[in-house]
Design a protein that fits this description.
The structure holds two protein chains of two kinds.
Chain A (H helix, E strand, L loop, with lengths): L2 H29 L7 H15 L9 H24 L16 H12 L9 H4 L2 H31 L9 H27 L9 E14 L17 E11 L4 H10 L20 H25 L3 H27 L3 H4 L3 E2 L19 H14 L14 H12 L10 H21 L4 E2 L2 E2 L2 H27 L1 H4 L7 H14 L15 H30 L16 H40 L1
Chain B lengths: L1 H33 L1 H4 L3 E3 L5 E4 L39 H17 L7 E2 L13 E2 L1 H15 L3 H10 L1 E2 L10 E3 H11 L1
Antiparallel strand pairs in B: 1-2, 4-6, 5-6
Classes of the chains: A mainly alpha, B mainly alpha.
Chain lengths: 605, 191
């Protein structure tokens, strides 16, 4: 790794941590309904929204009502995205006359965007009309993120309230997340991105003339649309000359901004943020990466403020950051070391002032190795899933880092809201385990952790591995699952494992070689996303309700402090133990064996 | 559940209009006002007003007298800016080594005297299939071929490449790179 590589990584991590406090402070005030500057502009508007929808913002909900409100709201989003895709050909804002999307693909995408996963089974510019992109996908980018933040805030209230049976109003938490946090940040980011070259227009795709004519061969079709064959039974080929290039454009910047800030990740174009019109410059790349982890990191500070002890938030942020930085230094050197198979062909993969070198298959020149590998770690630490390079072409170890980050349960920063509530579940398990070790009743933030909380926390921690490993096992046993695999050997298994790790943890990134737009994968991955989102969010709200009803225990000499370096280590240990014990056998069949094969071939030569 | 249906439907409708109509409309309006060129794809026009490319989207080059860009995996032809795509070939896939071998052979056939190792970005497909850039090393590798095809002094070409080399943004971000289309357009004017 070069000194510039270290510098770019350090600059990223430092900027991220420096922004966590001011934004975290602001968000805590928004959720606690304290005055913020934007009130002047937005408060009347907010009141109008509540009046129109018949919501009394002062009336709070029990946990079950809160959960039902969230589920009903998400169901509406799911149905809308499904309907928009199914009928987009009959609807306006479809300048390319794209056809209706198939039912299984529509189901998958609707589940994907309602659950904040944003797995892309489709290619954006060849599938979705502008109307579907805006009214369906952009809207879900906002509200699925806001729903995650709302569940987190409800959980925090569970810790701060004593002997209460209500944990907040879902409609208010969601509206405030959208109005005060996601929209203003997105508006600013979108405009900066346009300044860097991200497109934002309602015009149809643009035609530009090419400097050199490109010709290619394709099978000649008869008048009946069937490929013609010659006397020997070979297809007749015709040469096509291309003199113009069609450049896909559209309202991309507005969607890209919220796709990153809301840890959504569903791209406007097929190749997501590798596309030069979605991520044109190294600066746009830095800002998009920053936007991915900004809110998840800042929410840790908000959490500390809201529970009345900012050290609690810093401890969780420290645990997340340590695992995150460690995996950056797994992925970047792995990619920089290049591909031995290419080295054997005499390719220059060295890094020097004139080239980035390394494993450049599937990467963009402007990002090079450092920013591509860093992005891969950032996007899978968060449950974002957008990519700026093709993860399928990463080296085995470079691809394992993002895969394992997803398998850890999306708690190293994780999704907006969902990452932190997932990490709090691990904190509950950590205090329980250490409570057993020292023989005390476990407590967290003044609340006794008892059997009910432990059962719910165990559910949230065990569901994703079950979905991931069960789904992968099923897919590699049946022909419809295996026939979608693109790369041969162990890498093919990695493609399937990656897909279920992504869907089963609501990330959305992919090893893109897998042909996942089939009825089998659309259905399986769609179900995986739904299970992993709601079977986690509902138990989390149940814990919130149960904790709110408890009294607050004063800290005594037997209380395990949860803001110390010792607790940070305990928390990391809990996350890693669960993640490692559950997934190392599966990883051994995929990336680990592929790595050994790759270096084995190299040393044999 | 019924009591939640009314607020859910109305609030969903309001937020849909807000985030799915008003928000993209505001961004589009401001973008078209502040950055009209970027917002529409950074298109370049020649003196006659003809659109000759986007400064952010690469094009396919195979003429020995032009600099070549990254291999592109888009279908059905390379650099199809209407359907972006990477190759998704895994590192141990034999198809990747075969493709790289063929690309090296093509480069060497066009420039038999050049025995230097080929810079990796020149023989690996980009992530988008539309990468407008190559590394300065990949441009340097091609200078002798282009100079010979055009019968011009390689030193003059070296200077042109240097003038088209972009440093890291703000001296820090990303990697140094050469925009192939811009370089070739300048090359064609040179003639």
């Amino acid at each position: 790794m070069t000194s510039n590589s270290f510098f770019q990584i350090a600059l990223y991590v430092i900027t991220l941590l420096a922004l966590a406090k001011p934004l975290g402070w602001y968000m805590a005030r928004v959720y606690e309904d304290e005055p913020v500057w934007l009130n002047r502009v937005l408060a009347p508007f907010e009141a109008l929204i509540y009046r129109a929808s018949g919501v009394n913002p002062k009336q709070e909900m029990r946990w079950m009502d809160y959960a039902i409100a969230m589920l009903v709201f998400n169901l509406l989003g799911f149905l809308t995205v499904f309907a928009l895709q199914s009928w987009q050909a009959f609807l306006p804002f479809n300048p390319q006359n794209l056809p209706n999307v198939s039912a299984d693909s529509s189901f998958n995408t609707a589940a994907s965007f309602a659950t904040n996963t944003n797995w892309q089974g489709y290619g954006g510019e060849t599938t979705m009309s502008y109307l579907t992109q805006m009214l369906g996908l952009t809207v879900q980018n906002f509200v699925s993120a806001a729903a995650g933040m709302a569940v987190l805030v409800a959980l925090i209230r569970g810790f701060t309230r004593r002997k209460a049976d209500i944990i907040g109003n879902f409609w208010v938490d969601m509206t405030r997340s959208t109005l005060y946090i996601l929209m203003p940040l997105s508006l600013v980011l979108a405009l900066v991105l346009v300044g860097q070259g991200v497109v934002q227009t309602f015009s149809p795709y643009q035609s530009v003339s090419l400097v050199e004519t490109v010709s290619y061969e394709q099978p000649k079709l008869g008048v009946d649309g069937v490929a013609l064959q010659d006397a020997a039974g070979k297809p007749v080929m015709e040469t096509v000359k291309v003199k113009e290039q069609t450049v896909a454009v559209g309202p991309a910047a507005s969607q890209v901004a919220i796709k990153q800030l809301g840890t959504n990740g569903g791209g406007f174009f097929n190749v997501n943020s590798a596309h030069p019109l979605e991520n044109p410059t190294p600066l746009s790349n830095f800002l998009e990466m920053l936007a991915i982890l900004l809110i998840p990191a800042a929410l840790c500070y908000s959490f500390g403020m809201m529970v009345g002890d900012t050290r609690q938030g810093w401890a969780i942020l420290a645990a997340m950051t340590l695992v995150f930085v460690a995996l950056i230094f797994v992925a970047v050197p792995a990619e920089q070391s290049g591909n031995p198979a290419l080295a054997a062909l005499g390719v220059d993969q060295s890094v020097n002032a004139d080239q980035t070198g390394g494993n450049m298959e599937g990467k963009e020149t402007r990002f090079g190795i450092t920013n591509s590998a860093l992005w891969a770690v950032v996007t899978t630490a968060a449950s974002n899933g957008s990519v700026n390079a093709m993860h399928d072409s990463f080296t085995p170890i470079g691809g394992m880092a993002p895969m394992w980050l997803m398998q850890l349960g999306e708690v190293i920063f994780g999704g907006v809201g969902s990452g932190l509530y997932g990490m709090i579940m691990f904190a509950i398990v950590a205090v329980f385990v250490s409570g057993l070790m020292i023989g005390r009743t476990p407590e967290y933030l003044g609340k006794k952790i008892e059997a009910y909380e432990m059962k719910m926390a165990a559910i949230t921690i065990l569901i994703p591995p079950l979905v991931v490993l069960g789904g992968t096992a099923l897919a590699v046993m049946v022909d419809v699952g295996k026939s979608s695999v693109f790369n041969p050997g162990a890498h093919g298994f990695s493609e399937v494992l990656y897909a279920f790790s992504s869907a089963g943890n609501n990330n959305g990134s992919a090893f893109g070689g897998l042909s996942a737009n089939t009825p089998f994968y659309n259905a399986m991955l769609g179900l995986a996303m739904l299970f992993s989102r709601y079977w986690l969010a509902v138990p989390v709200l149940a814990i919130a309700g149960s904790l709110a009803a408890k009294k607050i225990v004063p800290t005594g000499p037997g209380t395990l402090p949860t803001h110390t370096p010792l607790f940070v280590v305990l928390l990391i240990g809990t996350v890693l133990m669960v993640g490692a014990l559950t997934f190392i056998p599966a990883l051994a069949l995929g990336p680990i064996v592929e790595h050994l094969q790759m270096i084995g071939v190299a040393s044999a030569k | 559940m019924i009591k939640h249906l009314q607020p859910a439907v109305i609030l969903f409708a309001i937020l849909t209009v807000l985030t799915g109509v008003i928000y993209p409309a505001i961004v589009t309006g401001l973008a078209q006002l502040l950055f009209p060129n970027q917002a529409n794809g950074s298109l370049m026009t020649d003196s006659g007003g003809k659109t000759i490319g986007s400064s952010l989207i690469g094009q396919a080059f195979s003429d020995p007298g032009h600099f070549w860009g990254r291999p592109s995996a888009t279908g059905p032809f390379p650099y199809n800016a209407g359907a972006s795509s990477g190759s998704n070939l895994g590192p141990t896939n034999p198809a990747l080594a075969d493709a790289v071998k063929a690309r090296i052979a093509t480069l060497q056939a066009a420039d038999p005297e050049n025995k230097n190792p080929v810079p990796v970005d020149l023989i690996t497909a980009s992530g988008s299939g539309l990468d407008p850039h190559i590394s300065p090393a990949a441009a340097d590798y091609q200078i002798n071929r282009v100079a010979k095809a055009r019968k011009i002094n390689p030193e003059k070409l070296r200077e042109l490449v240097q003038n088209h080399t972009e440093a890291r943004q703000w001296g820090v971000f990303g990697e140094p790179r050469v925009n192939v289309l811009a370089l070739n357009l300048a090359l064609d004017v040179l003639r």
